[in-house]
Amino acid sequence: MKKLSILSKLLVCSGLVFVGFSAQADEVKGSAAAGNTKVWLCVGCHSIPDYRADYPLVYRVPMLGGQNAAYITTALSEYKKGERKHPTMRSIATSLSDQDMADIGEYYAAQTASSPNNPLK
């Protein structure tokens, strides 16, 4: 009886491990190379030094180069869900897939001061 109890616990634990692996497999992996062709959406505001947007409020638009990929992906996802409020960013984010957001995040995370100029960024 005791052996059966231990065996059932081992089976449950091993099942949970496989569930964890399948959840990780569903995670989207970004590609900086793929993001290279997708950042044209960001150019109008985020590539202009000291740019200040005036709608809906006046604020300084951040430069994205060198920013953490996960932060960019999360921010875009929050704009898409409406958790962050900015009409322009929301409309852009709603047009992006999860893969697009991950690729854009990886692209900007890979940027440094010595990165070659991308005419699309």
From TrEMBL:
Keywords: Electron transport, Heme, Iron, Metal-binding, Signal, Transport. The keyword Signal applies. InterPro entries: Cyt_c-like_dom (IPR009056), Cyt_c-like_dom_sf (IPR036909), Cytochrome_c_Oxidase_Subunit (IPR050597). GO terms for molecular function: electron transfer activity; heme binding; metal ion binding. Residues 1-25 form the signal peptide. Residues 25-112 form the Cytochrome c domain. This is Cytochrome C. The lineage of its organism: Bacteria, Pseudomonadati, Pseudomonadota, Betaproteobacteria, Burkholderiales.
